[in-house]
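hey so i finally got around to running the thing on that chain from the lab meeting. sorry it took forever, my laptop kept dying and i had to restart like 3 times. anyway pasting the input first so we r on the same page abt which one it is
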Amino acid sequence: MAGTFCVTITHCRTDGDKATLGFVVANAAMGSEKDTMVFLSTDGVYCAMQGEAEKINVGAPFAPLTELMDKFIAAGGKIYVCTPCMKKRGITEKDLIKGATPAGGAALVEWLANGSPCVAY
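ok and heres what got predicted. didnt touch it at all, straight out
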C-alpha cells in the first residue's frame, strides 16, 4: 500500500463544498499516516489566497474551510498551488497563506509517478 496520498482541488469560490470535502479527505489521509499533498488548480487556488478560505463555511457537519486547512498544515500536510493558475488570476506568492507553496504541474506529476493514489474535487 502506498505511503502517500494526493488530493487535487479545482474549486473554492465556485463550489465551497468541493473545497471543504477535499480538505476533509486530505485530513483523513494524514490521520491514516499518509504523506499527503493537496494540489490546488484553476478556481481551487483561491483556497490558498489570504482571506479567501475564511469565506467558505458550508455548515454542519463540516468544519469551516480555514479550520480544515489549518489542521492539515499543522499535521505536516503539503499544499501546492498551481503557478500558471495563480498567474492567470493575478495571485502572487505574497498573497498565499503560510504553508502554501507555488508549484507547476511537474510537482504533481512527480508525486503521482511514485504510485500515489489521488482523488479530485
